[in-house]
Amino acid sequence: MAKLLPRKDVVIMGLGWTGSILGQELTAAGLDVLAIERGPWRDTANDFNIGYMPDELRYAIRKDLFLKPADEAMTMRNNVSQTALPMRDYGSFLPGAGVGGAGVHWNGQCWRYDPSDFIAKSHLTQRYGARKIAELQLQDWGVTFDEIEHCYDRYEYLCGTSGKAGVIKGQVQQGGNPFEGSRSREYPNPPLKRPYCASLFEEAARNLGLHPFPTPAANLSRPYVNPLGVAMGECTYCGYCERFGCANYSKSTPQTTILPVLIRKRNFEVRTECEVMKINLHPDGKTAKSVTYLDEKGVECEQPGDLILLCGYGLMNVRMLFLSGIGKPYDPKTGQGTLGRNYCYQTGGGGATLYFDDKRFNPFMGAGALISSAHDFNGDNFDHAHLDFVGGASISSGQTNGRPISGRPTPPGTPRWGSQWKAATAATYGHVMSIGGSGSSYAIRGNYLDLDPTYTDRHGRPLLRITFDFPDNDIRMQNWVGAQVEKIARSLNPKILTTGKASKGWNAVPYQSTHNTGGAVMGADPKTSVVNRYLQSWDVSNLFVLGASAFPQNAAVNPTGTVCALAYWAAEAIRDRYIKSPGALVPA
Amino acid sequence: MTQSGDGGADKSEGLKLCRRRFLASVAVLAIPGAPALARSYSGIKPPFFPFGADPPRPINPAGWYFLKPNEVAMVEAIVDRFIPADHLSPGGKDAGCAVFIDRQLAGSYGASSRLYMKGPFMPGLATQGYQGELTPAGRYRLGLARLSDYIRAHYAGKEFAALSHAQQDDVLAGLESGKIELKLVPGFSARAFFELMLQNTMEGFFADPLYGGNRGMVAWKMIGFPGARYDYRDYVEKHNQPYPHGPVSIYGEHG
Amino acid sequence: MVGVAVMLAAPAFAAPDPARIEAGRYQAILADCIGCHTAPGGKAFAGGVLLDTPFGKLATPNITPDKATGLGNWSAADFRAAVKTGMAPGGRRLYPAMPYPAYARISDADLNDLWAYLQSLAPVRNPVNVNQLAFPFNIRGLMAGWNWLYFKTAAIQPQPGKSAAFSRGEYLVNGPGHCGACHTPKNLFGADTAAALTGSALQGWFAPDITAAPRRGIGGWHVSEVVTYLKTGHNSHAMATGPMAEVIENSTALMRDADLAAIATYLTALPGDGAAPAPLSAGDARMKEGALVYDSNCRGCHNSGGGGQSLIFPPLAANPVVQQQSADSLIRVVLAGTQSAQTARAPTAAAMPSFAWRLNDVEVAAVLTYIRNAWGNAAAPVSPDAVTKTRRSMPRH
Known about the structure:
The complex is a heterotrimer.
Chain A: E1 3-4, E2 8-13, H1 17-28, E3 33-36, H2 44-47, H3 56-61, E4 74-77, E5 85-86, H4 115-118, H5 120-128, H6 145-159, E6 167-168, E7 171-172, H7 196-207, E8 212-214, E9 224-225, E10 231-232, H8 254-257, H9 259-262, E11 268-271, E12 275-281, E13 288-294, E14 300-310, H10 314-324, E15 341-344, E16 352-355, E17 371-374, E18 393-398, H11 418-428, E19 432-439, E20 448-456, E21 462-467, H12 472-491, E22 496-499, E23 517-519, E24 543-545, H13 560-578
Parallel strand pairs in A: 1-14, 2-3, 2-14, 3-11, 4-21, 14-24
Antiparallel strand pairs in A: 4-5, 6-7, 8-17, 9-10, 12-13, 13-14, 15-23, 16-19, 16-22, 17-18, 18-19, 20-21
Helix pairs in contact in A: 1-13, 6-13
Chain B: H1 9-30, E1 40-41, H2 69-82, H3 97-106, H4 136-154, H5 165-177, H6 190-206, H7 218-223
Helix pairs in contact in B: 3-6, 4-6, 5-6
Chain C: H1 2-9, H2 18-30, H3 33-37, E1 50-53, E2 56-59, H4 76-85, H5 100-103, H6 108-120, E3 131-133, H7 142-150, H8 164-174, H9 180-183, E4 200-202, E5 205-207, H10 223-232, H11 242-250, H12 257-267, H13 285-297, H14 299-302, H15 328-336, E6 338-339, E7 351-352, H16 361-373, H17 384-393
Antiparallel strand pairs in C: 1-2, 2-3, 4-5, 6-7
């Protein structure tokens, strides 16, 4: 029998980026908000000590800050003909754990999606005809870029994002991304310093007629105080960004932007080391009553709330809906059902590695978003009429780290051990740069999420099952962009140039990207989406599902900016409309 | 938490206890009348704990924690072929890579304690990663024993360490290429065993010296990696110029 | 919270004047009553804070109107006598950890308001064993002698020719604010010496010189910068941590701007001693070692020139806290870490991590010697022995 606790206005599951944003916005609206977080409390000085944070083995290799598969694993397969097996260690992607979530150990690449990304289906249909996208399961988001522009702006100013605007109020700005959607104002901070590789890339790209610009960085180029009054430091290019907590308050995280203000409030509470088991519905099945969780001693508690917000990592939000029996599971055979639909990822491959004798890059001087990019071949910024794919990639070069356990390239043909390996490693380290393409990932009928029939977690609940392979469209796109990358790389006259290819057969082992999207997608039609344009569940009106699980398909660049812009968008809808009149914000 | 497997739990236990005490009182302040919920944070300044650090504990360099004497001899010989001593650096053994592997296998890594280890264990595809039931410690124990069997059978009863460098290299190359098969278990091939040993050796060579390898920061000096420094603001725009300072370790050694 | 407490506690039989209660609430802020009378995590004003005095431990009493364990049976006159003369009902003498020598300057009218406020609080049952001193200091009667020697009451008379702000500042600093309780050096008997506000050791910290002394004091600070510091806990010269962070959070951040300006006007006009030792030369072995330690531990936040970063990492160059006679606070901060004040205007509460696990006593001494003598700073070197002593004295968990 679960211990019944006093009700709260709002119960949030997961205190990462979206939980923190919603917590801040809804406490400011006067609501009594409780966040339930599976992992521990974490904060800069006590947990990200500057003396031992630069520890590649502990944090990057042994993954000390990440979700342990022992606590929650997932199974995977490439298609329905295979038997899914558990990822016994996370490799391809690395979900976060604890207060701050993945917001603690992200790189800080703080992007907006392009206006056409939000209307992918209608835009591409209009421009190229329906046949062009027939093999894909593209959908519009139900919300437009212009509607959430101010939400992007709020997030960028919360973070103190360092960057250069490309288009302000319709006017193209020198040095920014001319393809971006029009923004209301400049970034709050100027771009980070440019490392050597990014300067070379920018020059080469410009010479080829492209439009390179500094990647917007939630690594701060100068000290900053955000609109909540929270102060941050200047990024020191330490090279321990992704997979690490930031030791000097210079990477934007929930801890460095919101939490000092949020936990000061008496109408906010977070309970850590409490794992939500399921969402309980009222007998009518149309509204949620409470959540059941196990506290840190394993005691089962029932926490009633008027409004329930799923703010976990996207994949875990989807699993929680499955475990709670909310929504109609998607069936890839019929294409019917919505829960688990349109699971997408990020397309990689097609990058170039450039070896030089006469150039020294000092790769250990890095930051998560110390990168320059060009979006000439991103999204629909180029004409696809005569190409055999849709979508595109962000081409970029930068320096995030030079950590030697995982990053010490040697020229092709070098043995992997022994004297020759040593000599090549010593001679090559620091003389290599790379140019990569991060590509869009579009939905197809066969990629989806559901519960695994065999494997269970430590509490006996089924694991989430991922059925995914890279769609042929995306492989063709990525390899076409790879050819453009190669042109840029060749123009820099490296001594040795190697290039990669995108290929089928998603592999769960090597790290690729923690940009898992979809499964509880947003949209205008309840037949093809789990949540409406405000991230409100079509089925359960007092339940909102935040996070990248809402993306109908994934764009080429990192999702965090859009995840958080949508969090502000949902918070506004709750604050301005839902509180005044609880119920469905969009008629089904 | 500790990476070194030498039982560094006291400190973090102490911290946890301290936090628990602190939070119990916070809960009372935060929600009067409600049941005292542990680890509840509300209406407070962000918690700060004097001395609240959870540093990795440097390994004790003496003795062996997991490997048996015959295994030690093999692993030392193997890491010395992976990373031979030459003018660039000492060999893998003198750099501490065998000690590193021993301590890792004796600790949480060796026991797969953070991994998903529930059955059923079924053979998987290459895209699904390692699906075996054996932990890294178990794989070393089995792999080293079978490798020893193989060498005795093929090299007139000798142990790996007694072979010439050329013979040792032949064996390692045979494992790497898959030419040599060992009698292991399904899902764990000789090649996988080779990859495991190579990966761990390189981890030890390039990790912070507190874990046992990279003694004297020899690997970092070899490639020009400055280690646990945290501020390159003055240098990042000095393009194509060498960084002027040597490495620093987590425990503050300067090299 | 205070507002809630007032509502809950309003007794049916009395009709307290809300204006007086509100005025009294402000007196409690000026006198920082909550700082000593609220235990960490405990109920406000319910006492139980252990004060480490040079003579032993004192626990602060419960000053809520609880009849059994608080001041529920006191009269307004009892309260005035206790606060102003250190004499509790029944002839018990208070220890001067209670700053009655300073509080003696508070007017009766203000004290009556304070009393009205305290009486309006919800009674909290919290028995406190106040006197935990060892013999002979546990004999309260001794305080009579102490008072005869050191207790000089004098209502503040405005100094001729000084502005109203200066006079108000003098009253706030030396009266309810009792700044000297921490910042004025004490003699062997725990009484103030004549070197008012020039810095003093307390509870393992060193409360710095807050006169207008050019180097160690706040001589280089503009009045508005003092106000910013007291209001927010931060300014371009320094950040408040340790006991001062609590004073700011509980008291000065909640004061009226005019009162803060008055305090600043007074303090910046207090003449101070600017004499400093010649800085150690950069070639000194301790300075070289210290520079090395600084480079690989400190510059990621405090910057290569010791300039710090606005509102998040305090500057070390020209920071008076760094150049006090005593390095006690610095040693403590490097070993254990510390957290800065959190106020409504500066809510970050950034913290410095502990380095006790990483730096040995020689390294801590070297880096402190370095920051005390680099970038134009000058102060006595720090010995490894002093670090050893502090390390041993500090409680671990």
